[in-house]
Write a structure and sequence with these properties.
The chain is built from 24 helices and 17 strands. By secondary structure, it is α+β, with helices and mostly antiparallel strands. The strands form 3 sheets. Strands 1, 2, 3, 4, 5 and 6 form a 6-stranded antiparallel sheet that branches. A hairpin with a 5-residue loop joins strand 1 and strand 2.
Length: 702
């Protein structure tokens, strides 16, 4: 003992030195690992930005190619047209005669009215045009017909000829009004002798672009053939091309926009903007391109990575953008993995160094064996606890391999199968009941096909009754990561399912009672809610919006749409004459009354917006909020068409019913008060057998 006590101080010093050495090595290793992890993350971020830029550039070039083909088609069509000898000769003769544009336009109008048998007095400047104007008069119908044929063949909105004084002198229609901005572009085309593309502008619900192309004198009039004698001003609809270029495909991850550049001004084409474009202050181009970089958009948090590439023929650029937040999400998983790997590596180094220290201090193997024995006791104890928990679980748990052979099942699942838990091990799914076997096969196929977890709602017989189960199946993998089985957990949700059915039945009965109360206010309202609901469902399916949520929303909203009528005076609803402004204002309050009555009810669906917006109109003339266009939700736009059509087809206290043609004509009046797409869907629906059957029921009042 004395000798052992004398050796203890030296052993302790060696242990301390070994511990200090291992600690220093651990600290150095941890610093090195963290430095490598930080360098790898920085390098990966740079690589991610580089790859993102390349992908954005490739996608921008693809969109630019699409627009290039479209623009090239426009340019080729116009070039072919402006090089026709008939057009060039006519423009040269008008230019040489110095005929005022107003005289040409007046003469064209005079010819139109002469065809209708009307007479019109010529203006003073017609007399000053001389005999040349009368010589050109027989050719005016031909030239106007040439312009009309060009419009019909190419699909342009409008084309017209402009003289060198920048005045329109020949047009197939009423002729456009050329403002100061467009005159500037026309003057540019006149002096540069090159085509000029003008900024996109809004016309009603479409976006149009004007193109000015010079018309040169023919070679047999002008030897050089380089004198501009007129300009062809063409207007085309760019909205389809813009939508096609900016459409977000399933395999695309970037947002696409179209920019237009005129001088130092850069704007983004936006179909929702009042002028059709949004100004981009502070944006600059470098060599005609928007180079890769970042920007901060108003109203958005963080920055956006963007670049833009020019479109040949056009003063346009295709912009690709990606928010920094979206880019960061792609880097989060890598950061987590690298950090986890670094921590695991540090832990591994710590374990290795600890093991080395353990060897240096001479720990014997019995201590290791003792530790393993204690670990085995803990694991065995935990297994017993886990088996006890599984046996007490109310949910059924079963593990089967990919061939349907059961490896494990708790008592709850055994009770579902009508067996004891110990009897199920080794049985195949075919040894169970038909329904339970089908359920296990479905779970196995689902997990095998996707390799991930799946959930099912199933009805299975248990004893003498049908029970509702929420089944969750999870893949079970072996030590090598290979899928070897499926774990299925059956949770009995029968009580919840029955409660939901009772609640749905109660809601349906309540809505039915409200509909009957509403229709009792006015005999003419009888059946209006039911007809509106049925037609709205048919329209939604016609427009490929027949999902369960949309149909349930339309059906419920149509049934409750007239609930506000209950609070209106009966004599106002049944009045046969025209309403005074005060009466009309009072009548429109039924929407507010409906909102007050329904806003406290949780339908679980967007029913209330559909009810409160179904009387809004696309041109903003509706009520109660005067919404317009896309500000009105889709369900409300469908209900507006369905409700109005059913109302027009049935009599009211102040009018008789309309026929189908008059009702459809009223819905299609311009400016459009109703969604054109929904009205077109109604036209197509009424041509079908289902639509004709509904129309017969509507006319019969059933």
């Amino acid at each position: 003992m004395a000798s052992q006590e004398l050796q203890l101080p030296g052993a302790e010093r060696r242990n301390r030195r070994a511990a200090l050495l291992m600690t220093l090595l651990f600290a150095l290793s941890a610093c090195l690992i963290l430095f490598v992890a930080h360098w790898y993350l920085q390098n990966s971020r740079t690589q991610l930005l580089r790859e993102t830029t390349q992908a954005m550039d490739a996608q921008a070039n693809s969109k630019s190619a699409l627009l290039t083909v479209w623009a090239g088609t426009l340019v080729d069509q116009i070039n072919v047209f402006v090089t026709q000898d008939m057009l060039r000769l006519f423009a040269a003769e008008v230019n040489e005669a110095h005929i005022p544009a107003s005289s040409m336009l007046h003469l064209a109008q005079q010819q139109d009215k002469a065809e209708l048998g009307e007479e019109i007095a010529p203006p003073d400047d017609v007399q000053t045009a001389g005999d040349t104007l009368h010589k050109l008069a027989p050719r005016l119908p031909v030239m106007r017909g040439l312009l009309k044929d060009f419009i019909d063949k190419t699909g342009f909105w409008d084309v017209c000829l402009v003289d060198t004084n920048l005045q329109v002198y020949l047009t197939p229609g009423a002729g456009p009004i050329i403002d100061a901005q467009r005159k500037g572009f026309l003057d540019e085309a006149l002096h540069s002798k090159k085509p000029v593309f003008m900024p996109v502008r809004r016309v009603n619900d479409d976006l149009v672009m004007d193109l000015a192309f010079p018309v040169f004198a023919p070679l047999y009039v002008e030897a050089s053939g380089e004198r501009v004698v007129a300009l062809l001003l063409a207007t085309c609809n760019v909205l389809p091309a813009a939508k096609a270029a900016t459409r977000h495909a399933a395999d695309e991850s970037f947002d696409t926009a179209i920019l237009q550049s005129f001088g130092d001004t850069l704007t983004r084409i936006d179909p929702t903007a009042p002028d059709g474009a949004v100004h981009l202050p502070g944006w600059t181009l470098t060599e005609g391109k928007l180079l890769p970089g970042t920007r901060t958009d108003p109203g958005q948090q963080g920055t956006t990575y963007c670049l833009a590439r020019p479109v040949p023929y056009l003063p346009w650029l295709v912009e690709q953008s990606l928010s920094s937040a979206h880019l960061e999400t792609r880097n989060i998983e890598l950061r987590k993995n690298v950090l986890l790997f670094a921590l695991l590596t540090i832990a591994l180094v710590g374990v290795v160094l600890a093991a080395m220290w353990w060897a240096l201090v001479g720990r014997n193997e019995r201590a290791v064996a003792d530790q393993i024995r204690r670990l085995y006791l803990v694991v065995n104890q935990q297994k017993q606890i886990l088996d006890g928990v599984n046996a007490a679980l109310p949910a059924g748990v079963v593990l089967n391999d990919m061939n349907g052979v059961i490896f494990y099942a708790n008592q709850s699942f055994a009770s579902m199968a009508g067996h004891q838990a110990g009897e199920l091990r080794g049985l195949k799914h075919t040894d169970l009941g038909r329904d339970l076997a089908r359920s296990l096969v479905t779970h196995t196929l689902a997990v095998h096909g996707s390799g991930t977890s799946a959930d099912f709602t199933e009805t299975l017989p248990v004893g003498e009754e049908q029970r509702f189960f929420l089944a969750s199946c999870t893949p079970f993998r072996d030590a090598g990561g290979k899928l070897s089985g499926v774990v299925s957990v059956y949770n009995d949700v029968t009580a919840l399912a029955l409660a939901q059915r009772r609640a749905q039945r109660m809601v349906s009965q309540t809505i039915g009672a409200l509909v009957r109360a509403i229709e009792a206010v006015d005999a003419y309202l009888c059946g209006q809610s039911a007809f509106t609901a049925r037609l709205a469902e048919l329209l939604a399916r016609q427009l490929h919006k027949g999902d369960a949520e949309t149909l349930a929303t339309l059906r419920t909203a149509a049934s409750l749409s007239q609930v506000g009528m209950i609070r209106l005076p009966h004599e106002l609803i049944t009045k046969t004459g025209a309403l005074t402004p005060e009466e009309r204002t009072l009548l429109q309050k039924h929407v507010d009354y409906a909102r007050e009555a329904l806003e406290g009810i949780d339908f679980g669906l967007p029913v209330l917006p559909a009810i409160t917006q179904m009387y809004e109109r696309m041109d903003g003339s509706g009520y109660p909020a005067g919404l317009s266009g896309e500000a009105i939700c889709f369900n409300a736009r469908v209900l507006a068409v369905a409700n109005t059509f059913c109302a027009l087809m049935r009599p009211r206290s102040y009018r008789t019913e309309h026929n189908m043609e008059d009702a459809l004509r009223i819905l299609a009046e311009a400016p459009p008060k109703y969604d054109r797409a929904v009205v077109r869907g109604l036209w197509e629906l009424l041509k079908t057998e289902e639509g004709r059957a509904f129309l017969e029921l509507l006319r019969a009042g059933r």
